Amino acid sequence: MNKTYIAKKEDIKRQWYLVDAKDKILGRLAVKVAVLLRGKHKPIFTPHIDTGDGVIVINASKIKVTGRKLKQKVYLRYSGYQGGQRQVKLETMLNRKPETVIRLAVSRMLPTGRLGSDILKKLKVYPDDKHPHKPQNPVVLEV
């Protein structure tokens, strides 16, 4: 009888990927990044263990969205106090903090809890093409 394989810490080999978000569609890019971060592209994938790789996303300010999402999509947050609900449209968010848009899209595709938090720490997003991760030797990935 075959046993199910469970990845161990010493079996996991981490790689860094560089993704250029220029003229890419937000949701499709987020799916690819979430798969890489989670480790689902590897044969040693184990659901309760972080087997994923690191991802560096550049040119976040040049991301595209389809349809009327630019005017209609709204990000909500709530402070917990009366009158503490804040709404920000996607268009405004892209002008102010474009890296937050990609980070939110990817984080909502990952599991919640401690595993999701650990996975999200391997995501680095930058609004332009400059990044300080040359020593990691990232592999350029075409999405």
Provide structural commentary.
The longest helix is centred in the N-terminal third of the chain and has 13 residues, at 26-38. By secondary structure, the chain is α/β, with parallel strands linked by helices. The strands form 2 sheets. Strands 5-2-1-6 form a 4-stranded parallel sheet, with helices on one face. The model has no long low-confidence stretch (mean pLDDT 95). It has one domain (11-141): Alpha-Beta Complex (Ribosomal Protein L13p, Chain: A). It has 5 helices and 6 strands, in the order βαβαββαααββ. The protein has helices spanning 26-38, 69-72, 90-96, 98-107, 114-120, and strands at residues 16-20, 54-58, 74-78, 85-89, 123-125, 139-141.
Provide key terms for this protein:
single chain; 143 residues; alpha/beta; Ribosomal Protein L13p, Chain: A; four-stranded parallel beta sheet; two-stranded antiparallel sheet; 6 strands
Short account of what is shown:
This protein has 143 residues and is of the alpha/beta class. It is built from 5 helices and 6 strands, in the order E-H-E-H-E-E-H-H-H-E-E.
